[in-house]
Recover the amino acids of this structure.
């Protein structure tokens, strides 16, 4: 059963005692839709409010609902944090369960990440000195990194994501299909695995209302809402 605070109080068990026994973390809790860290219109004119509303409240919410349905049949996996789940997918034996979790769990992780690495244009900050140095070392310049990232995003055939990742201590640009991501070791090719710093959703649902077929225009505009403050913090970590 799910043990919430109310249940604990009713039973007269102290929260501290449960926490020290690890019990509070032993029960699976359903994944929930995180609130956007800004208003839906705050990324305009680069990403329009209607796209943000549908993307967050319909698409992201649907991934979470389906993820919870799958996890209801997978008690061990249901106890994992979303990050831990991504790392364990390569070890899931049942190909049908693994495939469904790549799509729905990946859909949840990717969108949760995506909202946080964007910010209103006036609040994006700038790349830190440390991040700028690493980008220069890996790609030659910020412009060269952006060009390589845009190229990966444009060349992703059909639906998927382009990423800036840290792999073995170095920055690298990769791309994954569908809702795969670089945390899915054993599912994605070794060359595409790592810790994401940036990721762009190039599913048509991410841009079609405003940009129609002009994916390149969407990618170009997206740089105006990249939350460098968040990317700096991820790089530091
Ligand atoms: Mn999406």
């Amino acid at each position: 059963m799910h043990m919430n605070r109310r249940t604990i109080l009713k039973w007269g068990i102290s929260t501290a005692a449960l926490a020290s026994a690890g019990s509070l973390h032993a029960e699976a809790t359903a994944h929930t839709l995180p609130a956007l860290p800004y208003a839906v219109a705050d990324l305009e004119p680069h990403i329009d409010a209607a796209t943000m509303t549908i993307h967050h409240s319909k698409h992201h919410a649907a991934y979470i609902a389906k993820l919870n349905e799958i996890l209801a049949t997978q008690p061990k996996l249901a106890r994992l944090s979303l990050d831990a789940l991504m790392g364990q997918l390569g070890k899931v034996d049942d190909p049908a369960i693994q495939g469904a979790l790549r799509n729905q769990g990946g859909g949840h992780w990717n969108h949760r990440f995506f909202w946080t690495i964007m910010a209103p244009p006036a609040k994006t900050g700038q790349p830190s000195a440390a991040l700028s140095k690493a980008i220069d070392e890996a790609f030659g310049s910020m412009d060269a990194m952006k060009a390589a990232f845009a190229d990966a995003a444009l060349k992703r055939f059909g639906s998927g994501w382009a990423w800036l990742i840290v792999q073995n201590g170095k920055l690298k640009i990769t791309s994954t299909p569908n809702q795969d991501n670089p945390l899915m070791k054993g599912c994605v090719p070794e060359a595409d695995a790592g810790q994401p710093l940036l990721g762009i959703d190039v599913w048509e649902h991410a841009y079609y209302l405003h940009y129609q077929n002009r994916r390149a225009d969407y990618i170009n505009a997206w740089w105006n809402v990249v939350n460098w403050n968040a990317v700096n913090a991820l790089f530091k970590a």
Q: What stands out?
A: Residues 49-71 form the longest helix (23 residues).
